[in-house]
Amino acid sequence: MPREGQTDTVDITAEVELDAAPEKVRVFVADLDRYPAWLSILAKAEPLAVAEDGEAWAVELRAKVGPLARSKRLRMVRTVDEPDHLRFERDELDGRHHAQWMLDAHLEPTSKGTHLRMVLHYSGGFGSGVVERLLSDEIEASKERLRLQLEVDQSSS
Predict the structure, then answer these.
(1) Are the C-beta atoms of residues 145 and 38 closer than 8 Å to each other?
(2) CA neighbor of 142 nearest in space, from 36, 6, 24, 26
(3) What's the pLDDT tens digit per position in 4-53?
(4) pTM for the whole thing?
(5) For 33-57, b where at least 16 C-beta lie within 10 A, e where not — what string?
(6) For the domain with range 10-38+78-126+134-156, which CATH number is right: 3.40.50.1820, 3.30.530.20, 3.20.20.10, 3.90.1800.10?
(7) Residues 91-149: pLDDT tens digits?
C-alpha cells in the first residue's frame, strides 16, 4: 500500500498520428535500444543475451525535476511481439518482488500512416502526482522527437 499522498499505480496512455506506414513505425518501437533517441526518460537500453524468456534489455530510466534527478535500472523483456502489438515488461532475475513496469505499443494503419497508442503502467507508488505529470509531459515531447526520427529514417531510405 502506498504511503499517504502517493498514488497506488501509474497508467499513462499516449496516442499520436504518424505519417509513416506501420512497419516503419514498428522499427522504432519494437526494440528498446531505439527508444533513447526519442524518449528521454529512457536514458539507456542495452540488449542482453537472448534468454529462454525472450529478448531482454538492461534499461536505465532517468527523470529530473528541477535540481533533483532519479534513475532506476530495470531488466525488461518483450512479452508480446505481433505486427500490430508489442509489450515490454519488467522481469528481474534476482528472485525478489519488484514493482511492475509494463509498456504496451499498439500500431493501427490509417489512411495517412499509423495511429500509435502507447500505454505505460507502473505499480509502484509515486509522490502526489508530480512524477505522473513529468512522465506525461515527457511523453508529449517524445511524439515530436519520434516524428523527426521517422522523417530522418524515411529521407535516408
Answers:
(1) yes
(2) 36
(3) 444 567 788 899 999 999 999 999 999 999 999 999 888 999 999 776 66
(4) 0.84
(5) ebbbebbebbbbbeeeeeeeeebbb
(6) 3.30.530.20
(7) 999 999 998 999 999 999 999 999 999 998 888 755 446 666 777 788 888 999 999 99
**Beta-bridge mates of residue 114:** 18, 109
Instruction: Measure the CA–CA gap between 77 and 67, rounded to whole angstroms.
Output: 32
CB 14 within 8 A of CB 143: yes
According to DSSP, residue 48 is labeled: -
Spans of all domains in the chain = 10-38+78-126+134-156
Contact criterion met (CB below 8 Å) for 9 and 139: no
Residues 6+ apart with CB under 8 A from 108: 22, 84, 114, 115, 116, 117
Q: Tell me the CB-side half-sphere exposure of residue 103, using CA atoms within 13 A.
A: 21
